[in-house]
């Protein structure tokens, strides 16, 4: 009888957890889609589409950035192209906050004086928050990968 009760409780817990796992898989797919859209809109210079994936304001490494400042940076980096190298993974901090880490390669960057920079590889961490049914980037951290 003891084992039957333990088995019954285990089965109940398993079924109770299944919707959460299914929901998390759907959220992971949605986050990856937003990251993909972020890279595509960078490469196609679609500023409106690019800004739509960010919360306003959002946190960058250096400072809090509003839409106008982000748009100016995007316009200044008109030759920037990004390539996703590999997906490191997604970690959920809470059901509506997640961190998506990936490695990327960038070309077409410039320094503050407008001088071209060599191609670079980075580890990117995007902090996502779910607003209703939409995942938005609320913070971005970039760490260069030295080779």
Summarize the structure in words.
- With 147 residues, this protein is of the alpha+beta class.
- The chain has a single domain (2-144), classed as Roll (Nuclear Transport Factor 2, Chain: A).
- It is 39% helix and 38% strand.
- It is globular and about 45 Å long.
Order of helices and strands: HHEEHEEEE
Termini separation: 61 Å
Indicate the CATH architecture.
Roll
Radius of gyration: 20 Å
Q: Which structural category do the helix and sheet elements fall into? A: alpha+beta
User: What is the CATH top level name?
Assistant: Alpha Beta
Q: How is the biggest beta sheet arranged?
A: 6 strands, mixed
CATH fold name: Nuclear Transport Factor 2, Chain: A
Total helices: the number is: 3
Number of domains: 1
Strand content bin: 35-45%
Number of DSSP E strands: 6
Approximate shape: globular
Mean pLDDT: 81
Strand order of the largest sheet: 2-1-6-5-4-3
């Amino acid at each position: 009888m003891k084992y039957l009760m333990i088995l019954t409780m285990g089965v109940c817990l398993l079924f109770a957890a299944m919707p959460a796992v299914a929901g998390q898989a759907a959220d992971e797919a949605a986050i990856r889609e937003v990251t993909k859209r972020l890279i595509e809109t960078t490469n196609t210079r679609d500023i409106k589409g690019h800004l739509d994936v960010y919360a306003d304001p959002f946190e960058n490494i250096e400072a809090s950035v509003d839409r106008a400042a982000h748009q100016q940076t995007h316009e200044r980096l008109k030759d920037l192209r990004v390539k996703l190298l590999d997906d490191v993974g997604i970690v959920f901090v809470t059901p509506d906050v997640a961190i998506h880490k990936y490695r990327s390669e960038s070309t077409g960057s410039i320094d503050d004086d407008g001088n071209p920079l060599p191609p670079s590889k980075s580890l990117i961490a995007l902090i996502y928050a779910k607003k209703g049914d939409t995942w938005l980037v609320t913070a971005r951290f970039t760490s260069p990968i030295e080779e």
